[in-house]
Amino acid sequence: MNFYVHQDKAKHSSRLLVFLFSLALITLISLSTLATAAMVSLSRGQPFTPFEVVQLLGWETLGSIAFVIGTVVILGSLYKFHQLSPGGKAVAESLGGHKLNTSARTEREKRALNVVEEIAIAAGIPVPDVYIIEDSTINAFAAGQNPTNAIIGLTRGSLEKLTREELQGVVAHEFSHILSGDIRLNTQITGLLHGILIIGLLGQLLVISPAPHRRITPIRYPLLGLGITLIILGYTGTLIGNLIKAAVSRQREFLADASAVQFTRNNLGIANALKKIGGRDLGSELSSPNAAEFNHMLFAVGVKRSLLSLFATHPPLPVRIKRLEPAWNGLFANTEEQVKSEAQTLKPSELQNPQFAMAAPTAPFQAALDAVDNSIAKPDTHQVELGHQLLSSIPPLIQQAAHEPFTARALVYYLLLHKDKTERDKQLNLLEKIAHPAVIREMKKLTPHMQSLPSNARLALIDLCIPALRALVPQQYQIFKRNLIKLLHSDGKVEVWEWALYRVLMHALDGAPDRQRLSHSKHANKDASRFIIAAIAHAGNSQYLPAKRAYEKGLNALSLEITPLPGIIDITLPRLDKAIAIASLIPPLEKPGLLKAIVITLNHNGVIKAEEIELLRAIADSLDCPMPPIIHKAR
């Protein structure tokens, strides 16, 4: 299943989840009605018959029960959705995590951060924030609404007990959840089911005994009875909710395991991590009191296992290991010993061969089209190795600067400077006036190192800076954003190459587009696509006639009516941003058509250059279609 079909099915999964939640809510209301009717019947000394509920309570009482239960559940769900709205960091902080990206100190922490960065660059998405959960067990999770606000969580035990290959397998598994949209569905599950859990929590509050020095008054007995009833109803709803979790989660774990092997071409990395979980007394269970709420998000079971496999959110460890390593002998591993097994996988020497995979200086037309169809959100082992190479090509001092909020701003300013020396000098003079003086000093110090940065590593460096820039306080961020816009406007026109880097940055930092700015015209999608094609045509051509031919080829690819090509002066930053915002919301199955039209527009002269590949990937990212680097495999 390709990315676009998966995204389309994800929408159906969300609808199915809402349907199952509605069924659970109806069941809860029905049980509440039956319990109330039973209490009324018993209080009158009459035998209770379910068929006499309407006669016992009346329609008005039935409606009141449904309204109260429904209101409590829906408000509880909305409250949880509000709690989770900041993205994955809300989940990480609920589990007691702390951010690692700007504070990695030990070699184990740096290794973990390095693994996450390599896979993020390979996948073509911003580097997620990495959180460490101070727990000695082995576990991990991905959380968030989408790749722009996703986080990766790792327990301290994962850092300390896993080898690099095992950690890479676990992290690749979590990236699969990010790229497939599972994290959004998991957030929806958490929010919806919290409302059902609220019923049981209210019952607990009513059952809690008063302080010892206070007497239990007669009015307490009905409240105790109501509390016990609510607990029973609440936990009945919770059991139903756990069934929903299990039904949605288990198959996705198998798919994420398989994707991790595709990323790393190393089935033993993730298999050995699972063996170590099975061989430890503590296994993967977290000590956090909130572990049960987020259990379905975890790499392995985070709470004490249920006796009923019906409620399990994860497949059994032996089943997962057998799928990854069919020849497994059934023995788990102690974390203190190195798991040894003969695996049919790439040798380390092959992976470190610089000719094994390299960024393409130019891309054949068909290779670019194939990347649109088959590589979106599906990095393979070649791209993971290229991610390692791209990260290694960034000078160590620049990598260090990318991890600090202060110096990360200096790097981004440098990346947006114009190629023409005259325009570049104007921009530098402007920055001297509007940016923080210390940031400018850092930029000047880093300039000699930035000059050795390969052109194909610019997007990788932008992605590397994202976690540090997220740490800016709101006032700092608004000034930084304002300065970027002034930098782009400094020459009176927008260079599409610099805009693309700016758009990747804003997509990661600002998240969803401002819907108030979007057009509601029935032709909005076509107009937005037409404008994007026009910008691409001008970007690849300095003369009008070649740009016009490229533009018309792109429109033909989209089966759009040929219209006059807008002038270069009409390609403005606000209009480009608005066009991308509209295009990002078109149906998933229509997005590959737009991306292919962009490829056709770029291919007007028969060659797609490295900077044009970078432009294609930047626009794909802004359309929520993360594209791995297009690589050339040595033969």
Commentary on this structure:
This protein is mostly helical and 635 residues long. The protein folds into three domains: 1-345, no CATH class; 359-389 and 515-632, no CATH class; 390-510, no CATH class. Helix content is 62%, strand content 4%. The protein contains 25 helices and eight strands. Helix 1 runs antiparallel to helix 8 and helix 2 crosses helix 7.
Number of helices: 25
Secondary-structure-based class equals: mainly alpha
Strand order of the largest sheet: 1-2-4-3
Through-space gap between termini:
28 Å
Overall residue-averaged pLDDT value: 80
What's the shape? globular
Strand content: under 5%
Biggest β-sheet strands, sense, barrel: 4 strands, mixed
Give a count of the beta strands, DSSP E runs of length 2 or more.
Answer: 8
Q: Identify the quaternary structure here.
A: single chain
- The total number of structural domains is 3
Helix content: 55-70%
What is the CA-based Rg, rounded?
A: 28 Å
The low-pLDDT segments are 335-358
Features:
635 residues; mainly alpha; four-stranded mixed sheet; 8 strands
Summarize this entry quickly:
The chain has 25 helices and 8 strands. By secondary structure, the chain is mostly helical. It is globular and about 95 Å long.
Topology of this structure?
Blueprint: H1 3-43, H2 53-84, H3 88-94, E1 97-99, H4 107-123, E2 129-133, E3 140-143, E4 151-155, H5 156-161, H6 164-180, H7 182-207, H8 220-264, H9 267-279, H10 317-324, H11 348-351, E5 358-359, E6 362-363, H12 365-374, H13 381-393, H14 396-402, H15 405-415, H16 421-434, H17 437-450, H18 458-470, H19 474-488, H20 496-510, H21 524-539, H22 544-557, H23 573-583, H24 591-602, E7 608-609, H25 610-622, E8 631-632
Parallel strand pairs: 2-4
Antiparallel strand pairs: 1-2, 3-4, 5-8, 6-7
Helix pairs in contact: 1-2, 1-7, 1-8, 2-7, 4-6, 4-13, 6-8, 6-9, 7-8, 8-9, 9-10, 12-24, 15-17, 15-18, 18-20, 20-25, 21-22, 21-23, 21-24, 22-24, 24-25
